[in-house]
Structures are given as C-alpha cells and as structure tokens.
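Hello again, I could really use a second opinion on something today. For a while now I've been wondering how a particular protein folds. Please have a think about how the structure follows from the sequence. Here's the protein in full, and shout if anything looks odd to you:

***
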Amino acid sequence: EAVSGSGIGALRALVKELTSAYAAVLVVPIIVWMARRFPVGRGQWIHLLPHALGVVGVGLLHTLLMFGSRELVYPLLDLLPPQSGTLSARFLKALPVGLIVYALTFAITGIVDRYRRARDREVEAAELRSRLTEAQLGALRSQLEPEFLQHTLHAISQLIYSKPRTAEEMIGRLLALMRHANAPGQERETT
C-alpha cells in the first residue's frame, strides 16, 4: 500500500526527531566532559571562553551528525530529503536549540556533581563520627575498668565476713561480666 501524504509527513517528523535525539546522545558526553573539565564558579570566569567555543563546536558537530544521518536515512525510507539550505544556514538555525541543550546539560552536570560531593562528605563525616565515638569509648573503658574493678572488689571484701553468700554471688557476677566484656568478637554500636 502506498503511504498517504499525512503518513509521509509523520514518518519525516519521526526521522527528524530521532536523528536529532541520536545526535544529541552522541554530543552530551562531550558537554559533560567540558562542564567537569572547565567548571565555572568563583574565580573561574576564564572558563567561560572554552564553553563559548564548546557551544559552537558541539553545535556544529550536532548539526553535522543530525543532517548527515538524515541524508543516510531518508533514501532508505524512500523519502526525499528536505531542502534545508546550506550547512551554515542549518547550523545557524539549530544553534539556539544547541545553546539551550548545552546550558541544560552543563547545569544538570553541576547539580549532580555537587550532590555527589555533598553525599561523599556526609558519608566521610559519619565515618569520622563513628571512629571518634569508638575512640572515646575505648578511652572511657580504659579509665573506668580499673576504677570499677577496685570499687567492686572493695565492696566484696566488705561482705566476705558479714554476708558470705552475697559476696560469693557478687564474685560470680563479676566474673560473668568480665567474661562478657572481654569475649572475642564484641562489636561496639554507634549511630
């Protein structure tokens, strides 16, 4: 069956959008690399020059890929290529969209990178807090263990003659506590 006029128009529009998207997929990694290689921030305004050149270069590459792929695809689908004028006219026509794509990709890359850095700093801070808590617990344990043991033994010695069963029970509990505290594989919990 022959394709109707509206079918050809829809097919032509589909090819136009797909070739544009295909070309964008190929140039977006270049924009991401440029955004990371030449960040623009405080004191880095000199990096605007590479981005100005990047907009032109990426725009030209996108235009070449887009229209080159259309020149290949249209004959395969028995479509006549549209008469779009010279390459420079095509480039100038596509430049505003390319500038928007470049700016959006640049901004999204910056946002994602800032989020990753913030998340990495949070993880590092949590690890440092955990290590600090462990060090504080170790220091506290080394201070408390001898003093706790001295006080407990003193209390037991006071009970040996007056309440021998209670003293014996306290010695048993102290031994159980020391076994538990010094058991291998004891994990300390921190938030």
The chain has a mean pLDDT of 82. The helical segments are 5-37, 48-76, 87-159, 164-181.
